[in-house]
Design goal:
Number of domains: 1
Number of strands: 11
Strand order of the largest sheet: 4-3-5-2-1-6-10-11-9
CATH superfamily: Acetylglutamate kinase-like
CATH architecture: 3-Layer(aba) Sandwich
CATH class: Alpha Beta
Number of helices: 9
Largest sheet: 9 strands, mixed
Structural class: alpha/beta
Distance between the termini: 25 Å
Length: 242
């Protein structure tokens, strides 16, 4: 029995790239689409926000001298490419899907209108939110938090390459400890790389929980949706490491 009725799944562009590290890996895309389809068929309403780092990362380009605003818009367009790719993969799974873009591009996506997004979710369609917030200087993490709040999602599920939130980078420190739960304030105060500070603050102000989990482990998405203790829960209260 699903624990949540409506979720917002946040995926980085790097997840779509797979082992290559760039572009879109068809096998990864197919696997993600199949897992999202399994969750949707349990009756859970699903929204998705994708990053664009597998194609273009605005902040990195800005650090190399490109105008930050232009670079961020290019990054937003990269998220639309990823959104269209995921839409195609989901439709192969026989799911009705809509891409809603924060930047007007009616040839390929519907404009983001909150009531329309909610209506699509209520009708059982998977809604993919593209182009971030539509504004430079805001990350897709912030877009995920904003869209989740706007459409009334009960939780943000952040699929990553690691199995939760650690007190330090587990890829560099073998003795890193994973948190079972952690508070928003601890994430902010410790500078943990869960989501950017704007996104975490938005979630904190609106009491929207975040679950950080390894999306690469088959079945993990379903386990999280069913309420199993997978990954790390970021919320108002915490009960330590494990």
């Amino acid at each position: 029995m699903p624990r949540f009725k409506r979720i917002l799944l946040k995926l980085s562009g790097e997840i779509l790239a797979g082992p290559k590290g760039y572009g879109i890996d068809e096998d990864v895309l197919h696997t993600l689409a199949a897992e999202i389809a399994d969750v949707r068929r349990t009756g859970v309403e699903v929204g998705v926000v994708l990053g664009g780092g597998n194609i273009f990362r605005g902040l990195a380009a800005a650090s190399r001298g490109m105008d930050r605003v232009a670079a961020d818009y290019m990054g937003m367009l990269a998220t639309v490419i990823n959104s269209l790719a995921l839409q195609h993969a989901l439709e192969k799974q026989q799911l009705f899907t809509r891409v809603l873009s924060a930047i007007d591009m009616q040839k390929v996506a519907e404009p983001f209108i909150r009531r329309r997004a909610v209506r699509h979710l209520e009708k059982g369609r998977v809604v993919i939110f593209g182009a971030g917030t539509g504004n430079p200087y805001f990350t897709t993490d912030t877009a995920a938090a904003l869209r989740a709040i706007e459409v009334g999602a009960e939780v943000i599920l952040k699929g990553t390459r690691v199995d939760g939130v650690y007190d330090r980078d587990p890829e560099k420190h073998e003795d890193a400890n994973r948190y079972r739960t952690i508070t928003y304030l601890d994430v902010l105060n410790q500078g943990l790389k869960v989501m950017d500070s704007t996104a975490v603050s938005l979630c904190m102000d609106n009491k929207l929980p975040i679950v950080v989990f390894d999306i690469g482990t088959p079945g993990n998405l379903m386990r999280v949706v069913q309420g199993e203790a997978v990954g790390t829960l970021v919320g108002e209260y915490a009960n330590g490491q494990g």
